[in-house]
Amino acid sequence: MNVYSSVCKEAGELPGYQELALKNRNAVLRESNVSPPESKPTKDIVDQESDDSIADEDDHIVIDPSFSFEFSGGALQAKINSAWNFSQVKSSFETNNQSNSKFSTLDEKIEKKRNENKIPNLEDEDVDVVDGNVESESEETSAADEANKIEQNGSDGQELSSDEDISDEEELAEADNDLEDTVRDKKAAEFFAPEQEIIEEQVETFTEMRLSRPILKGVAGLGFVKPTPIQANTIPLAMKGTDICGAAVTGSGKTAAFIIPILERLLFRPKDVATTRVLVLVPTRELGAQCHSVASNLGKFTDIQFSLCVGGLSTKVQELELRKRPDVVIATPGRLIDHIHNSPSFNLDSIEILIIDEADRILDDGFAAELNEIIRNCPKGRQTMLFSATMTDNVDDLIKLSLNRPVRLFVNSSTALTSRLTQEFIRIRSSKEQHKSAILASLCSRTYKTECIVFFKSKADAHMMKLVFGLLGIKAAELHGNLNQLERLEALESFRDRKVDFLLATDLASRGLDIAGIRTVINYDMPTNYSLYVHRVGRTARAGQAGRAVSLVTEQDRKVLKLAVKNAGAQSHIKNRVIPSSVILKFQKKIQDLKEKVKEISKEEYEEKVFKKTEMEINKGLNSIKHQDEILSRPKKEWFQSQDEKLQQKELGVRNHGASKKEKNNEEDSKNKLKRSPLDGLSRKKKRQRSQFLEEEKEQLKSQKFSVRSAKTSTKPKKVKQFADKINSKPSNGQSTRKKKSGSRFDAEVKGKRR
Ligand SMILES: Nc1ncnc2c1ncn2[C@@H]1O[C@H](COP(=O)(O)OP(=O)(O)OP(=O)(O)O)[C@@H](O)[C@H]1O
């Protein structure tokens, strides 16, 4: 039975629903170039056996009706199509892009160099191929062996001797953190709604949620049958107007969790005067475009109007759109503020619902000034909903949003990763960091050959690797802030449509992007904090699919590595991979041989850039002469921040990007440890005694609190969070992370969780 049959069965009682489902099915099949089956009497559709063959043919739109979500993984056991396309957004660029046509594209430049120099494709050569899906035992064993060898020959000796100090520091940090937690718990109890306000039962189907028919049609059109846990918990509460802080693992359907209830509420809006009632804030333009596309698809059968208001698109076009007062505006903070200040008829006075997606990122220092300005402009009585996979529940962060007793819907622990994710780590010793590009090239040509995102810390590295990959004959697109918006969207689409095998990206692509079927995420550079790691690796293993994250780990990245291993679920797989040095050397030589060609292409690009800039300046000058009167008569644009302020804030954002307050505090703490520690000046023995005392005191407090809580909970009905936690709870592996282990620390850290 395919998705439409299941939907029809679920919605069987709704009059006329079967006809709608039939039309809908045919529309989706047409879009997917699958001919709809011959028209049959409506009743037959429900049990049509022949539909199964269509299901087999087109796995983009058909899901296994027996799918279910795992709380631990938050994942679907079904394949489903990504619900976005950017054609609508891209059409607004077509007029601006003509001057580019006189230059060759980067791919053409690369191809020209390859042809001139007769560079062979990697496939044509005799490279020893390792099956990417099957973990090679020999590779794993040799990883451990190699690490042990390094230990024995003393190169890591210093590192081991510092173990003692590190565990002391860890103990103290833990004691500090525990105290902080107690204070935090108290604040949270006052700030958040009491837990009994959380819905008590899981909702099994969308129809049970009493959604209106046009919304159910939109939901069915995307192939959704059963709500995911975050949807089941969020939708009914959000429809009541409750403020929500929602967290669930990456790829678990948070977008629909907030879009569906707003659509349902908007269906019943007064329609006499067009009014913008809903504002969705997202941190990146791509995420905005994706969210706009998902919302438009879900609201396809309603008269609700959506507008996308993000940087990189024409301000003029947006201004005209905003003047029509669309019901829902999806915006990035900077562009939204630009409109608040400079589009005469636009303001946020009528906003009734504010949604902040990737809220922890937007609450981050990088967006602080902009967020304050937006909140200041929104009415106080609005409903506010915040979502992220790594949602903060730090009250200090949330207070500035003036939430009204929000309900916490943490469907999983905020650091959990889906159990379908395999994490692999490759140790890069400090003396070998210059081999990273060779390691990446070998991984991408021997092991993970398709559907793979590679994350870099800088735009320059991503671009350089695009040139190297191109010259090696590996099909890749780049995605970072040095590209214009059209190029960014095209890169995403060509990767989604499998025109290229690799997406070489900066953290621009780390949050929210939903591209179906990504098999592997490679961290060429490990992210600077664990939250960011969660978001990056969350681009794979989404919606029930399995996936793999491969990280190149240098000595500086040990902190994030440790957190990744510590937070991996009991069932998740952690592996240590080593690439034979002969292979690395081979690729190192290949890359070395391409160095000159890379330089030549870069020079060509630079000259082109200078030419374009000059041309643009000339055109600008000519225009200002031609339209002088009109330009002078325009009202002066008001900038919310000066260029310097913007830059400062951006740098702050980049530095802290994605770091939770606690992580940032921990980083600060460890920097200022000596200055700020209350145990400063004590001998090591005394420090131990003191922290043991603190530990005991904390334990006592905890157990008291626990008894009070369990007494209370025994009299209360079951709560969502408890239910999720119970399912999430993993058996302790009984292994202390502080125990000394044989082998290298890296090896031990990775192996710590390998079962
Ligand atoms: N009820 C559902 N049934 C089937 N598929 C669903 C359902 N809800 C969402 N999906 C699919 O799951 C995928 C992930 O959804 P979405 O992008 O909203 O996840 P997310 O939780 O916001 O992830 P991230 O934290 O990375 O932003 C999408 O492809 C979406 O179409």
TrEMBL record:
Q: Which residues form the Helicase C-terminal domain?
A: 420-602
Q: Which domain of life is it from?
A: Eukaryota
Q: Where is the composition biased (Acidic residues)?
A: 47-56, 122-143, 161-180
Recorded hits in PROSITE patterns, A to Z, give: DEAD_ATP_HELICASE, HELICASE_ATP_BIND_1, HELICASE_CTER, Q_MOTIF
EC top class, as a word: hydrolase
Composition-biased stretches, type Basic and acidic residues, lie in: 637-672, 693-702, 744-755
In chain numbering, motif Q motif lies across 204-232
| Any one GO cellular component localisation term in the record | cytosol
Q: Which GO terms describe its molecular function?
A: ATP binding; hydrolase activity; RNA binding; RNA helicase activity
Reaction catalysed by this chain?
ATP + H2O = ADP + phosphate + H(+)
Region annotation Disordered: residue ranges? 29-56, 114-180, 637-755
List the subcellular locations: Nucleus, Nucleolus
Which GO terms are recorded in the biological process aspect for this UniProt protein? Answer: rRNA processing
- Identify the EC number(s): 3.6.4.13
Where is it mainly found? nucleus
Q: Which family does it belong to?
A: Belongs to the DEAD box helicase family. DDX27/DRS1 subfamily.
In Swiss-Prot or TrEMBL terms, this protein is called: ATP-dependent RNA helicase DRS1
